[in-house]
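Reopening this one. Same input as before:
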Amino acid sequence: MKKLFIITGEYSGDTHAAYVVDEIKKLSPSTTIEAIGGKNLKERGIKLFSDHSKMSGTGLTPKMIWDHFNLGKNLIKYLKEDYKPDTVLLIDYSGFNLQIAKALKGSGIKVYYYICPQLWATRKGRLKSIKKYVDKVFMTLPFEKKIYDGANIENQFVGHPLITQLPPKYDKNKFIEENDLDPNKKIVGIFPGSRKMELQYLLKTFIKAAEILDKKAPNQIQFCISQAPNIKTELLEKFFKKTDLKIKILQNKNHQLLSCSDSLILASGTVSLEAALYHTPMLISYRAPWLYYLIYLCIRYIKYVSLPNIILGKEVIKELIQHKSKPELIADETYDLIFNEDRKSVIADNLSLVKDMLSNKCSSQEVAKALLGDLNNETYSQKKTPQST
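Same output, byte for byte:
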């Protein structure tokens, strides 16, 4: 009986891991799987060495560092001496996972990586660690192949998880009715991020931009803001005390808002790729403390910050970063995205190419087949399995 161990560090990794587990169970029900994960893996009956809620946090506090050190130490001992898996699958969370990969080197345990560090952005220094300690990487973005091929690291493009995991576009009329919106007004969705620092540096700017837009197009636009699950309503509401503009706060409706908005104001992140797959016009605006930004400028390897632009290799989505993150510029760009039909058409045509470039592969299936193929010395690539939904 073959044994696999999966390591995730946060909710998104737990979600990706759960899809891979689903596919493994279809192909090889006898494979034993344990993990560090969360509720998604737990719901699938996977034995958890630790719940990753103990790993997630903000900032390098002494307690967080100590907790990670102890967890890593105990995990390595367990993997080497007790569970002794054939393979370990690392998912995202590179700071912790690459240390585990290093500790497992020479143990006879194969190490694979899915949802790899963003070497193409600011983490190219980790390429050496991956080359030394990881047996194979599963790439989710097509342009990553050049990086791994150049470093002679075994790799496989498996497609992006969003291709099969992103919910279908929501019915706009239903969305308007359910959220008490005006069917005669355009919808602008605002996504200020999920970190307190992002709210501090972005939300006031986004609200001022909305106020300017409201004056430019009176009674023509309504605004909805996406509330991240980890952000308390009281914290969010503090930012609205100085404005008379009505902005509806939506909880747990990210994909509905992304797909039903006429235009979006986004902080950078995976949300821009989700919006691109819905073909929704958007702009990216981001600002951080100047020290952080200067460090980023010194270590970045690419021109763009948003995934749609990186994938397409050109600026289709306007990026208003740091000193350009101004209410007036955001308002002008959003106004154009809403009312300039020719511009909207060009953007939609470009965004439609993103999905094609990511391929139609079901990434969780591809990862499961590759893992099982190596575990059992069999070829699973030709076996037909239903796609995850």
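So the earlier flakiness isn't reproducible anymore. For the record, The mean pLDDT is 88.
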